[in-house]
Amino acid sequence: MNQIERVAIVGGNHGNELTGVHLVKMFQQYPNLINRSSFETLALLGNLKAIEAGKRYIDKDLNRCFTNQGLQNPQLSSYEDTRAKAILQILQPQNQPSVDVIVDLHSTTANMGLSLIFCDLHPFLLRLGAYLSSINPMVKIFINQESREGGFLRSLCELGFVIEVGAVAQNILNAELFHQTEQLIYAILDYFEGCNQGNIPQINSTLTLTLYQYIGTIDYPRSDRGEIQAMIHPQLQFRDYQPLNPGDPMFVTFEGKDIFYEGASTVYPIFINEAAYYEKGIAMYLTQKQQQVV
Amino acid sequence: MNQIERVAIVGGNHGNELTGVHLVKMFQQYPNLINRSSFETLALLGNLKAIEAGKRYIDKDLNRCFTNQGLQNPQLSSYEDTRAKAILQILQPQNQPSVDVIVDLHSTTANMGLSLIFCDLHPFLLRLGAYLSSINPMVKIFINQESREGGFLRSLCELGFVIEVGAVAQNILNAELFHQTEQLIYAILDYFEGCNQGNIPQINSTLTLTLYQYIGTIDYPRSDRGEIQAMIHPQLQFRDYQPLNPGDPMFVTFEGKDIFYEGASTVYPIFINEAAYYEKGIAMYLTQKQQQVV
Hints:
Two copies of one chain form a homodimer. Chain A is α/β, with parallel strands linked by helices.
């Protein structure tokens, strides 16, 4: 691993996720909070117009606009397409070094605690994840290899990842989650500082890290016209990262009928009842839990 | 009290409050659920365009458009002004009897359980509230006499009131709150049926009803430019209807400094951290708790 020279912390990639917005605004006001001696840290707001409007996005989801194809297509001129190109220019300026790390701050109405979302099993990120979850059991690691191709901001660099905190409603701040996220960011920056200085924070060398690997997504039951016909079952609501066994209740219809999980094996749902995913046809992600020695 | 002849149940007065939207859609699909023998029940969606868009409103808050002045002003032509006039025409048609009761369904990111909001101390509503809170301790009664003048839908008739349920994020459904709200609506309709038939559901005749009376609102601490500088304190978050004593922490700044309640007496905050109230300059409502014999 080479030295980490530049780290970007991005908030407000979605304009109605206020935790990241206000963390970045605070970091911009007090840069000492994120300055470390061995690397540069940049704090950047993502979707400026959507932040102003208190919406996830204006025309389209900014965090799906970072595809190579989209970024290289001058025809795409929506606000988010334009902003994605501007962000690329800031993070990967021409004739200057790119950022080495992107920390993309998000929040969710699902009860995901302090989740880290990685695009793959990069050994450096896994060690970081193992360290962070060893100092804070609220930290969970979700690996979504599908997301490499999805136009996500984090896919712009090898060490790009998301911090996803919840449960918190859109357009509000939860002080406890705000300060927990803040402390997590400092732990990440301190870890990079340690790595750069040859003092990698030590964890138990036989530590097995718990990972949640993407399997797929599940939609709400819908009518022919696409209207949802059921809600997340009360026994599943807020139970992100907990086992869902074949036969467990998954949804309940408006009329009160239970709908059960009919898969063949136990899965671990996350992003359960995320507000922004109703329109994407996602009631939850399913993951499998696995242990990995790091 | 005369007979109740017509009851209107309105959902989606705010388009991103899905509990009411989907309850009304279900009642429209299965009218038997809300039909009672002694009166007519109408289930009505409020802000149709905002429901479609998943937003609170399109141009302005529909639930502030029901002022006499606004309803009589043909110059006002925003979507919400137009829709308010159309709703008035449905609820109070010319040359036909008006509805006697409006039940306006709302949800909030504050932890308000099943709250009833009344415009005044109308004896019929107080008895209804006493009955409902006697069968379900989650039911709380908030009296907001200021709201008579605020252009709220509920102010269109003497027996207009709000059911405000939470905590639930905007644009999601919480199955438990959905079904609790549904049961509360049936209890209300059954109560009206009993009254019409001379069988008013009996409660302990010496019952004292707990009421929360409006005192005022508190804004977030803000900068000169209007940006919020603090969040609801973790010790106050989700503690709606619980006592806030002089000297108790109320807010915490982004930098972590506590801000204390400096009032002279104990108050009972509600609507704590409601997402839609950030733009209205309201961090919470303050109420005083009082007992009333009904």
